[in-house]
Specification:
Order of helices and strands: EEEEEHEEEEEEEHEH
CATH architecture: 4-Layer Sandwich
CATH superfamily: Ribonuclease Z/Hydroxyacylglutathione hydrolase-like
Low-confidence stretches: none
Helix content: 10-25%
Structural class: alpha/beta
Number of strands: 13
Number of domains: 1
CATH topology: Metallo-beta-lactamase, Chain A
Strand content: 25-35%
Largest sheet: 7 strands, mixed
């Protein structure tokens, strides 16, 4: 799916590829490939310029998958507790440690880290400082919520989507470890994105029906939602 010159591809589970073919990323470089939480991706996947890891669980911080896409000078943004899970590569890879409520800038693109945690479940404790990410690419905003429940901090995203910019919300819908489809739709109603896309289903937990239910709930809330085909 392409929006404003940015390709957004769902790779299964919580994994996404964001390809910037016509948006300046850094001086002299007009094409960038960004991955978020790659897991069980194809062996011949395109190499990464930037990888964002939300937290240290095996299905989000997968060294086997990172090996498929790293190249010399790939940058990996990750929480501190992911470092020990990522072994040394055979060439220079820059690791950038991030905590919630920080911002990084890469040319015309900024990346903000947001809180991601469970409210009444033990799987993603708030004090772990795990994250979701908000990418700002010109007038396009892409929010990858990470593994989270419908948390109060999402209130910060209200009003981000408007006539002058579009917010794309990538929301977990599989339940158990994250939001259910209905809870994710309630989060979408609060955020009011230009488009909501379900994730975190079809692999470790959650089914295609969860994604379909999410789209239906969003329709009832007058929120535009779409299921992406796995690539």
């Amino acid at each position: 799916m392409q929006i404003d010159g940015v390709d957004i591809k769902w790779l299964g589970h919580a994994g996404f590829l964001i390809a910037l073919k016509s948006v300046p990323f850094e001086e002299g470089k007009n094409s960038k490939t960004i991955y978020i939480d790659p897991y069980k991706i194809k062996e011949d996947s395109e190499k990464a310029d930037l990888i964002l890891i939300t937290h240290s669980h095996y299905d989000n911080c997968s060294f086997e998958d990172l090996k498929k896409i790293v190249k010399e000078d790939t940058k990996i943004v990750l929480p501190a507790d992911c470092q020990s899970k990522i072994m040394k590569f055979d060439f220079p890879v820059e690791m950038i440690i991030m905590e919630p409520n920080m911002e990084l800038n890469f040319g015309s693109i900024s990346i903000n880290s947001l809180m991601a945690y469970n409210l009444h479940k033990p799987f993603h404790p708030k004090d772990a400082s795990w994250m979701g990410y908000l990418l700002k690419i010109n007038g396009l905003l892409i929010y990858h919520a990470g593994d989270t429940d419908f948390i109060p901090e999402m209130q910060r995203l209200t009003g981000f989507s408007g006539s002058d910019r579009k917010l794309i919300a990538l929301l977990p819908v599989g339940g158990r470890f994250t939001m259910t489809a209905e809870e994710a739709a309630e989060a979408a109603e609060l955020i009011k994105p230009h488009l909501a896309i379900p994730m975190h289903y079809g692999s470790v937990v959650g089914t295609e029906k969860d994604a379909e239910d999410f789209v239906q709930f969003c329709k009832e809330y007058d929120v535009n939602a779409k299921i992406l085909k796995k690539e």
